[in-house]
Design a protein that fits this description.
- The protein is an alpha/beta fold and 270 residues long.
- The protein has 2 domains: 131 residues, 3-Layer(aba) Sandwich (Rossmann fold), CATH 3.40.50.1400; 121 residues, Rossmann fold (3-Layer(aba) Sandwich), CATH 3.40.50.1400.
- The chain is 46% helix and 17% strand.
- The longest helix is centred in the N-terminal third of the chain and has 17 residues.
Length: 270
């Protein structure tokens, strides 16, 4: 009987920002180190990117095949179920299976709606509210900034997440916007909010890691400070390598690995 050699492939979006790429690769490495007792030291955890960075998904898959891996648990480490998760990645996996039919592929889902996403967001925001005068959280406006997508399901999932956050955080108002691809745009929502009697503003980038877009959020906030000098503007940290996010991923891997559907069956869920 053939020995089962397993690997976990984490798929990130990719970025032109080398710091963002390093954050994701370091996250994957730390995840493996934290879970040796759970998955076993013989299980490889590696990473790949949808675009803008290497290795690409096909490159990473072929490296694993060359190393003799015969079962790959593929986790799209992406917040929401946009076209990448539903179409692009499955098509790449199907193409790979044509060349390596003997390799078993188990395909997971995006991170939402795991409860830890809301808990982690709540903690990031609550900690950042401490930057404002004590007991003034109800005088703070919060702006949650998402990436944006052309996929309506991803947009609705983001709005659902923001709605959950709004129930957890005491504040004056809690609003949402997008850096690109959807309305309202951050470049318009930010000055509009600041022009509407806002004295304290907390911006929360709903992002897994840093990158060009997160830095654009930060830059535009700094520019807004120069114009709206009477308003205090702070930025909460993104999700990053928070312990809660490692737990999200651990549960996603376990959930996917325990799925008895075969490769094609798993994809039919989409």
């Amino acid at each position: 009987m053939q020995t089962l050699k397993k690997a976990i492939l984490l798929i990130g979006h990719g970025s032109r920002d080398p710091i963002a790429v390093k954050e994701f690769i370091d996250f994957a490495s730390e995840f493996q180190n934290k879970n040796i007792d759970t998955f076993g030291k013989e299980v490889i955890v590696t990473s790949a990117f949808l675009e803008l960075s290497s290795p690409t998904i096909p490159q990473a898959l072929r490296i694993l095949a060359k190393d003799g891996i015969n079962q790959i648990t593929v986790i799209p480490y992406l917040l929401f179920s946009a076209g990448h998760v539903k179409t692009e990645i499955p098509e790449i996996l199907e193409e790979f299976k044509k060349s390596f039919p003997e390799i078993n592929i188990l395909y997971g889902n995006s991170l939402w709606p795991h409860k830890n996403l809301i808990q982690c967001a709540k903690e990031k925001i609550t900690q950042s509210l401490n930057k404002f005068p004590k007991n003034h959280s109800r005088d703070v406006d919060i702006l949650v900034v998402g990436r944006g997508a052309s996929d309506s399901q991803a947009i609705e999932q983001f709005k659902e997440a923001v709605n959950h956050i709004s129930f957890e955080i005491p504040c004056r108002t809690l609003n949402h916007c997008f850096i690109a691809l959807a309305q309202p745009k951050y470049s318009e929502a930010l000055p509009a909010l600041l022009s509407n009697s806002c004295k304290n503003l907390l911006i929360f980038p709903f992002y897994l890691f840093t990158g060009i877009l997160v830095k654009r959020i930060e830059h535009q906030a700094e520019e807004a400070k120069k114009i709206f000098k009477e308003c205090r503007i702070e930025i909460a940290p993104y999700f990053g390598s928070d312990p809660l996010m490692f737990q999200v991923l651990k549960e996603k891997v376990a959930e996917t690995s325990n799925n008895l559907n075969n490769f094609l069956g798993a994809l039919k869920d989409y």
